[in-house]
Fold:
Amino acid sequence: MIPYSSFTLPNGLRVLVHEDHTVQIAVINILYDVGSRDESPEKTGFAHLFEHLMFGGSVNIPSYDEPLQRVGGENNAFTSTDITNYYLTLPASNLETGFWLESDRMLSLSFDPRSLEVQRKVVIEEFKQRYLNQPYGDVWLKLRPLAYTRHPYRWATIGKEIAHIEQATLEDVRNFFFRHYAPNNAVLVVAGKVTHEQVRTLAEKWFGPIPSRTIPERNLPAEPEQTERRTLTVEAKVPANALYKTYHMPGRFHPDYYAVDLLSDVLSRGQSSRMFNQLVKEQELFTSISSYVMGSIDPGLFVISGRLQEGVEHAEAEDAVNDMLQQVIDEGVTEDELEKVKNQSLAALAFGEIEVMNRAMNLAFASLSGDPAFVNREPELIRSVTTADLHRVANTVLTTRHESVMYYKAGNAI
Structure:
């Protein structure tokens, strides 16, 4: 249970306060409701580029990190297909420093051409190192456009291609900022050794004067239902053959999300799971294999990913996976299997919320459902899933017509 209070400033900034006086720190988490799904197909990677640019100096503060470190604070950020999230921790006694820093960069970046060039180089290098020059690094650059044909999830958060970042202009950057970085497009969560009154006072002082902006209505193209199996074969210098399969599934706040998530756990969570026992241990077709859900807000993907044993052909390995999936489609799962993964999920949820930072992040993300209290309903949503639910979603999700398959072949040994 994460207790919280809330209020909204006149400029539209939603503020959530989670008091925990057992800790000596304060956490400030600002979630901007913008991710790579909000980009133009011709200008991708901008949400991630902005994550970097936001640390490059704002109107009144040339260096974000320096004053924060001076008061014993730390910070970081991440970008996903759906959100861009900035967070910091600092001693509770220095809370106002965090408000000062975050409000100033929400007000406006410095739009210094030098900062753009520095961060452009950083992002391009990240693109090369993590996605192009690393074994299997390009999997999602290829798998997303295979699984999606219209929705912006068809490109990765890093972007479609390096050229989009290389060609980004200062005007592009400025337009993106003022289109998405506004108090009425953000959720501020303050947690830790704080009080509601203290947070309200600081929020009104530092964020209250920032004007709201006109945020374009999100009108993303819906992904049409996939009606036939798609395949792609890729060859590269990687250590071993690999198999990737995706299936379309409901989004993060859909009632069936937890059933599909638990189904993925039944299949591959731990060494007692079906996939490990049958495909790794008994049949020795894979060295490793897992199934998981992407967890995206819009309809997402159920993913199966495995590395093949040396000498095993893709067709043989995929047939074995399909046989296992068909067994679940035909027979469902046992009560014992479901109970085990429920307990694992509930334990992971409870363990994750030990850290006040995680509680702040979870509150912020839950607010995108339309109700932050969603975060406290998750345990019951997990407990309420039945074996009948898993049998039903297996039949609706794990169908051949919803399937995209990538055969990743090892070329010359590395």
User: Anything to note?
Assistant: The CA atoms of residues 130 and 137 lie 6 Å apart. The mean pLDDT is 95.
